[in-house]
## 1
Amino acid sequence: MEEEMIYFHCDHIGVAGTTDVAVKKRKTQGGHDIYEARCGIAMMGMTQMDEEEFKACNYDPFHPEFRDNYCEGRGPTPEKAIEALKKDMKETADSIWA
């Protein structure tokens, strides 16, 4: 009988999301719409906020009292903003090991 092996590949070693991805529509100084995506992150398992503080902010990285690390991305559509967020998260993870 052949044994099955499963491998997982992680592109963001050292960075983990602590919130859902949130996207908001913003206005640029020129009056154009732009989307901003944010996701709270823990770096090497460490956060700046405790669980009660996350709950008080409703796990929203846009909340005015959210004071933890987060990655962000901006784009002309929500999808492009999320793509930019993923790139920022990868760059953040890569910077840990540089």
## 2
Amino acid sequence: MSAPVAFCPQCHSEVAFIHEGSSRRCPICGFTFQTGLGVGERYSPPISSDAFGSILRIVVIFVLIVLAIGAMGLGLLYIGCSHMSF
């Protein structure tokens, strides 16, 4: 039974990688890479232990958005009233 061959990015040869635990090694140049890790395990978001800081940040962003919408509304009201003729 023949082992599947793959392209080695370091020595640019087609080789049958040697399985060593959760990694594979090129028999020609020794290049190794890890296998078996899912995307979620490799790129997990940072864990924030400061829940109060996270909630405070969300509240501040919400208040700033509401103030920006209010300022735009007042500006539109001012422009609308300034063009009215009595």
## 3
Amino acid sequence: MTVYAGLFKVVAGVTVAWFLVLQFARNLVFGLLGAPSAFVVNTSLMGALAILSGPLLLHHFRSFPCEDRERGEWTRTELFYAIVFFMTLFIFAISVASLALSG
């Protein structure tokens, strides 16, 4: 699972860098790629984060037995992966629906 976690960190870093570039050089990115291609890159990065964070969440959830937990207790790692998973999955679903309806 360490390779998977490393891949998650790389994709998360690329996603943050992509959004920073979009924030500060939007005209350059749209000039080079075009707005539809930039939207596809956004959708792909959100999908990759959702695909990577889901199994990581499941792995961390299963590695900490239920007998050792208090009622409703989550570790910080599980909470982080759960928040990333559901946020990126939601954004990915909306983006895919938007792409499907637009063309």
## 4
Amino acid sequence: MPRTIINARPLPTGRPPERVRLKRIHLEEAFDALDTDVLLCAPRDDRSAGYYGIARFTQLDPELSDPNFMLVRLEEFLSFLRPVPLLHDGLPFEEAAQGNNGSLL
């Protein structure tokens, strides 16, 4: 089960890029996520904003053109049938999926 979310704009084909640029301030989290499955999320300004698939986070490389960033390699992509929206009834999806007692609906 994925425990890390990566904000990665999908390609026009709906697939994630093979590599995603991350800010270097997330280096520790990136090392913790190596060789695990990650949940992919299209940014809020993307037409298909939301969670759209799972991929294996397999490699971490320096971004040679900018030392403030690193590159994450994604493999074994599995797409959802349709994106899961970030908001539901104006609430973040994670909050909207909880009942009054905190349980998942």
